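Much of the work behind modern protein science is quiet bookkeeping, done one molecule at a time. The protein below has been through that process, and both of its lines are reproduced in full.


***
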Amino acid sequence: MRHRHRIVCGFALLCLLPGCGTLPLPTPPATSGEPTQQTSQASPTSQSPTPASDPTPRTESTTIQPPSDEPKVEVLDASRWSSIDFASPSGRIVCTMSGDPEFEGATCGLPTSLMMGESGWVPAAEEICPEDAESISVTQVWVGPERAEWQCAGGIAAWPAPDSDRVEWARSGFGTVIRSEETGDQRFMSLPYGKALKNGEYVCESRETGVTCKNGSGVGFRVNKAGVKFYR
């Protein structure tokens, strides 16, 4: 199996050390709100298309029927933007979604407690990205057109700052601003529990049990502070 992985950003190495939650992070740019990270492949970041002339997006939400043991969620179709970011209400998980064929997929960063081995299991970098295991760690999960898998990365998966053009989906009132202790009390746009975002063929749901992202075939993952469950 071919694995996607990202090369370490300078500041991210510090974030893999214990006590990361209290370390200050680089101040994000005021305009985009999203830090830059280098990758061994093309980074799944693309420019969002220019919003329509109406500053308030005309978006509609629908309801999807989940498995019988879970309540329904309200879904907002955010496919008009090529790439979008969001955080979980707890701020522990940040995710990015893209329907752009070049960067297609959904990626979520692992909670710090999970990466540090305090609340669950994460595979060793030697297993997932052996060629770069000495410099980066397994910090993310990703789902693409055909598979879902662990990812090695050195930077944060997403940066859903309230002023970022990657959170335009929230302008209609679908999102909520929270403060994330995971990133030094940074303000992020969160996807409330019981709601979901659709971007292209991908849907990410926010629940108290974690964030679940799947492609149109039902392949995907669920991530929370206790671990990761893959749907294959």
